[in-house]
Amino acid sequence: MLRPAYKSLRSLRSFSTTASATMKVLPVQARSDNWMYIVVDEASGEAAVVDPYDAPKLAQRVKEEGVKVCWAVTTLITTHHHNDHSGGNLAFLDLHPGIKAVGGSNQGPGTNTIVKDGDEFKLGSLDVKALATPCHTQDSICFFVEDKAKGQRGVFTGDTLFLAGCGRFFEGNAAEMNAALSKLAKLPEDTLVYNGHEYTTGSAKFGLAIEPENAALKGLFERSQTDKVTTGKSTIGDEKKWNVFIRLDTPEAKKATGETEPLKVLAKLRELKNSF
């Protein structure tokens, strides 16, 4: 089973390609802090890409890695329609014609397979489940990927859930974000979190402004100072320990916001983060 390890990307990759592994996830950076992903079912050789903003860079990485193990990209996944996530879709589809392009709406360029909450599909032997999480955008949708036989699982959260943070409420409200985060919090606690941006240092710093004595947050902040690739190295269980946007009932969150009702706490926390 994959387990979080705050080490280099090389260490993560070598760990995830052990003999027992089936699901392999490679983060690839775009722009200054966006994450794109290659997801491979090593049992079948089928692969998917997630949010391929920089299509040439990702396609080259697919080519470099795929030569070694004969991968075949069959699926493109879009977590939401914002350009820094979906803007490379058409270019990637030009480089890989005929593949399935999955998203929560047709606002993502090139989408040919629209999925809704609870829809499932296969990536080789891996099970993929769509989890609608409207708020950041109304078509925001997370993808839970699982190898049930090996006990490996991860969730691609786009701009809904960040490590120790959450997305801005661009097209939604606190009630929607609370529902989205609550849905993700119900996933198995060992589910690895693959988010849309490397915002971990800033998110952990804000979290410590709310919960200054939170040991888990302190550890995350310290690790983020030396490891610039934190995505995929922590779990849903960790988020419950350090994400203040999930921990709405703590005395610290209530004190910092001056609110007691959970949705008001969440709304105020997001306002505070916006200006932090």
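^ that was protein a. below is b, sequence first then the tokens
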Amino acid sequence: MESASELVEFPLLLTPIDSHYRACTIPYRFPSDNPRKPTPTEISWIDLFLNSIPSFKKRAESDTSVPDAASKAEKFAQRYADILEDFKKDPESHGGPPDCILLCRLRELILRELGFSDIFKKVKDEENAKAISLFENVVRVNDAIEDEGKRIDNLVRGIFAGNIFDLGSAQLAEVFSKDGMSFLASCQNLVPRPWVIDDLDAFKVKWSKKSWKKANNSGADIILGILPFARELLRRGSQVVLAANDLPSINDVTYPELVEIISKLKDEGGNLVGVSSSNLLIANSGNDLPVIDLTRVSQELAYLANDADLVILEGMLCSVLILGVK
């Protein structure tokens, strides 16, 4: 299920000052909590994952690459629901106490044991194709903004708007399946500044020449949110590394998919709408979940990140990174 290569600690964030780093930043429980009784926070997150089961089951049922998909999708739904209910009775069951990484990992484990490797493949391909057709227009709109501060503001708005396309959320998945979602409308409907930035798990800025970004959901998120921002860094002379998941998980973009997307967006000269992509690298993060544990990243990513001056982890709980170095 996980990457076959050895995983290592992320070199920049895991310093002596980060000795208490935990991959799941939300405190589900404290040492004083009863180990045999779920906390209110654990119950809330367990219910959140329970509510997502119907949308995952529906995606699994429609996976034509898996024989007898409907029957196996039903097994997935029942097994996962049983595990989540077990956590409500005993938070230490199934390797608990539960946190977001464990809840995601158990879901992916059951899907893969039943033969489902990428139940969101069809919708990812569809949304990537739509977003690719809009990419040039989105970057030209950004390029037309002469004021640097306003242009960066607009690019950040694009990142926020793109990350709304998260099919791991039961509510968003329902809206998406009924009405679809518009990237431009999402940009326009963002609340005005000041923003509370909980979409970016880490945002270390030092405009220098190497940028490292971890890219998240397929479609609008990566293509219309992340890539225009990365292109702006390239235009400023930065070296940019985009890191994506090793294996499929919900609708997050994978390393092979990101390589293919970039190849489709480049022109014959290797440019991204007039900006050279010669300083753009795509890396495999080694991750296999929609959340990331920075104690377990690929050796390639750790090497590339070592001298980065700008690091952005973008996403729900982050499955995408941007590295930047000057």
